[in-house]
Specification:
Helix 4 packs across helix 8 and helix 9 crosses helix 11. The longest helix is centred in the middle third of the chain and has 17 residues. The strands form 3 sheets. A 6-stranded mixed beta sheet has the order 4-5-13-10-11-12, sandwiched between helices. Strands 8-7-6-9 form a 4-stranded parallel beta sheet, sandwiched between helices. The protein contains 15 helices and 13 strands. Helix 6 links the parallel strand 7 and strand 8. By secondary structure, the chain is of the alpha/beta class. It binds ligand F0G. The site of ligand F0G has 23 residues, from helix 5, helix 9 and helix 13.
Length: about 475
Amino acid sequence: MIISEPSRVSASLSRQRCIEPGCRASYGINERLYVCSQCGGLLDLELGEEQVGDAKSLRSLWRERLRSFDVPDRSGVWRFRELLPFGNTPPIVSLGEGNTPIYDAPRSAGYCGLDALQLKHQGCNPTGSFKDTGMTTAVTQARLLGVRLLVCASTGNTSASLAAYAARAGLLCAIMVPAGQVSHAKLAQSLDYGAKVLEIEGNFDDCMRVMRELAQDESIYLVNSINPFRIEGQKTVAAELAEQLDWQEPDNLVVPGGNLGNSSALGKGFYELLKLGLIDRMPRITIVQAAGAAPFAKLFSEHERELTIEDPSLDIVNLDHPHTLASAIKIGAPVSWKKAWRALRWTGGQVVTVNEQEIADAKAIIGRDGIGCEPASATTVAGIKKLVAEGAIKSYEHVVAVLTGHLLKDTDYVINYHSQQLSIPWEGVPENERRIVGQFSNPPVQVEASQSAIRKVLDVMPNDHEPHEHTS
Ligand code: F0G
């Protein structure tokens, strides 16, 4: 069946607009901006709405494209191109991102005290993290702008993703990471994809500051999530998820929070779906931060009551020395916090923190569902468990957690957990609180290469696959 395409969004009708309610300055789509030149506010992309098409024909069109072999149709981002601020034939740079699975996770559900739990696995993207869904649009925009060099600051995943997409586009790229704080797997990706890797003494926030300064140069393009074209690609996950749930949005959508681009993007994505009549109500967005890197959670706990106000005069207090073993979200100065706050306002959302022990155990439980994720992603299940215990999420509610990165992104963490070697290295933690107990650890067993020795080990294996808590 051939379905006639609703007319596409016209690039000339789309605008960049300042999100600050008191400003709302607007700019053309091809102005190379990251923030509003009048007030410094974050920028949103606004679609020429009347062009998008009605809900019914969009749903059929997006479904139909799953049968196509064309590159834009195969991409789980460009399949939803009616939602994107590009013209009819952008020079798409794609690695076949998106179209990631959503899994039922019964063991994780039981661990959290829920009847059911679904995990949307964004780690199943081409470079192993959700960043690819935004990188395809940002690097496509870079092509349109004709920039010379692409750059980003990163805790490892953005850089791996940028390195891959820049390579596909044949564009130069340089990434900046905190030396010694990025997992080997992520660093290896950037090296192999040919990025110039710059390591600095400092943390992610220092990298971000330096790269923002560097990107003042017209020929250099910054593709961190402050770049609104990144957010556009990432927001399509809302459409993909809603489609996978047959357009019945969940009660709760739970995401980790670092620089806060992902939560911002999902908020915008669902908000636009609602305006287009594709869904009937917003899911409640819950953002989970690691306790040692939680400036946004602090802001929320102090100002939750102001969530209903459109323009509360809030300011986040950044952390100079964020800490967490979930290195992907070791961030003290999240650039997109205002957009994330807006996402909370739109969805009646909330922010919670979880500690290192909770993250580590949640990760092992997710693994027992046969689903591997990196530590930052496991904050979601840890956060859900906490919220269910507090009664903030009811056991019967429909909950989806977004796993943002793949298990193989950080195998040192996994091996250390399972061999009871995981510990907190930063200062200020009492010696007796440093050790993380692998409560669900599954250590390798050294065994003699004989039938009898092997049988001895196998005979004492439990009869089920349920995670068993260690008491020692
Ligand atoms: N999960 C993973 C696996 C991440 O890599 C990140 C961010 C986040 C969650 C948090 O997402 O920043 O949108 O709130 N990683 C960035 C990077 C900072 O450089 O790879 P956010």
